[in-house]
Protein: Rap1a/Tai family immunity protein
Amino acid sequence: MLLLTLALLAAADRPVVVSALTTGQLAAQCQGKDKDPTASFCTGYILGVFDTLSVARQICPSPERASNIAVLAAARKYLRKHDDSDAAPSFVIRAGLREAFPCPVKTPPRTKTRRTRK
Structure:
């Protein structure tokens, strides 16, 4: 019973991924030119992850910089460098898109300090 409890606690920190697709399999599907916008499983997968992250505000693409080709190129380049990752493919694509389309870091507002007169 103790081992089961420890196993459940260890697994609780990890997100649940139900996809049987591995990062290596996605990398194999995404071989080819980085800027190839041809409709394929790879293109659909990457754009689906992009749309999900954009709506969730986990990436911050600007209209001037984001296009299908720019998104595909960024994700494929990152995937090619990390095709041996043990992480779920959606997490690898997410990391690549976060690197390509980061959100600005919010700085806390400055507090006004009063100058004291002597």
Observations:
- The radius of gyration is 20 Å.
- DSSP finds five helices and no strands in the chain.
